[in-house]
Give the backbone structure.
Amino acid sequence: MFRLSLFALALAFSAVTLGAAFASFAEAQTQKKAEKKKKPEKVKAKKKGRNDYTAEERKKIMERARKVCRDNQGAPSRVYRIDYQRQLVYCTPPGAG
């Protein structure tokens, strides 16, 4: 009988402790969800492609690309490709047919 009462006492104490621990855990989870909801969504900027530039702008970009190729590869180099989205210029090395 004594063992049974000790077991019942221990069970009651652990139920109270677990109940409090579960309540604090549940409260922390609701706070995390509320913080996630507060953050504004990041809007990705639309990358510009070739068609988003006017003819004059593309002409200026090409002049600048030629200058970049001349400075990096030498005078006989040419513009191979322009990546408008990443703002990169690809040049052919001098002597590459």
User: Anything to note?
Assistant: The chain has a mean pLDDT of 79.
